[in-house]
Amino acid sequence: MSMADGLLAFAALTGFSTLFGAMARGTGPAPAGPHHAIPVILDTDIGDDIDDTWALGLILKSPEVDLRLVVGDQGKSLYRARLIAKFLQAAGRSDVAVGIGLPPTRGVGGQAKWVEGYDLKSYPGQVHADGVQAIISTIMNSPQPVTLIAIGPMPNLAAAFAREPRIATRARFVGMHGSVRLGYGGKPQPDAEYNVKADPAACRKVFAAPWNITITPLDTCGLVQLKGAKYAAVRDSKDPVARAIIENYRAWAAAGGNPQRADTASSVLFDTVAVYLALAEELLQIENLGIRVTDDGMTVLDPAARPIRVATKWKDLAAFEDLLVRRLAGPPAP
Prior knowledge:
Elements: H1 3-14, H2 17-24, E1 38-44, H3 51-60, E2 65-72, H4 77-90, E3 97-99, H5 112-115, E4 127-128, H6 131-140, E5 146-150, H7 155-163, E6 171-176, H8 194-197, H9 200-208, E7 212-216, H10 218-221, H11 228-235, H12 240-255, H13 261-264, H14 270-279, E8 284-293, E9 299-301, E10 307-314, H15 317-329
Parallel strand pairs: 1-2, 1-5, 2-3, 3-4, 5-6, 6-7, 7-10
Antiparallel strand pairs: 8-9, 8-10
Helix pairs in contact: 1-2, 3-12, 3-14, 6-7, 7-9, 11-15
């Protein structure tokens, strides 16, 4: 299936053809409403690398999306849940449910300073103690197909599929995973990308599930970084989502020993590309490739493996950066 055929097929399935066409052409989002918005679940290891926070912000500034649930994955589950809840509350989006990943474990990461003193019990919205069951219930109870965006290692999703295999028939999967032809920093050799390497067995289970799968590997997501005027537009924005992102970025940079990093440029924004792929694909080249996950976390090209849809090259990276800036630095979505 070609990139265009895949996009149109999903658009036809969900009734979003006008919305997807406008987004893919770069003309901006189509008017959003209760009958247009795409039901979305975000599974994230937010609180380690800062790019997850940017991705969550992009989702919240995308009116095509009806964000139903955000679940923290890959340990540190209470820290991640608190970070998700405080960010959603700062954005005025406590209508979104928060899920605690399994098992409920402590530990913190680079954004601990930003979430210091925040009590999860104070979150005005719903908090699910069993985030895996929340994923299952959200998918199975949705009258529309759900888009599941995964931007971290996937023990939660492997567990969800083991409990209820039917979720794969009622959802599509979009992930930031792997390294096919390029590695970190665009180097010409693939790497064992972290989201796969951290739990190869879970990744294999998720990739084997019979849902529509689209991924952005390092080949494309590893090239995204805002610099100069583009970064400054987000850094200096008064929008509450942009402010929360930059506050977290400053905390993360300071925790890493380089607080000045947040003054001039973003880090590499891997996960934002998965969010874009949940909405449109026009700016990327998509290939159907057989991908085999090895025990050491490599995603190897293998014609005998199940084909999945892989964003392998940018058609217009600058246009994606511009879109990212317009969304995050602009006024709140209507």
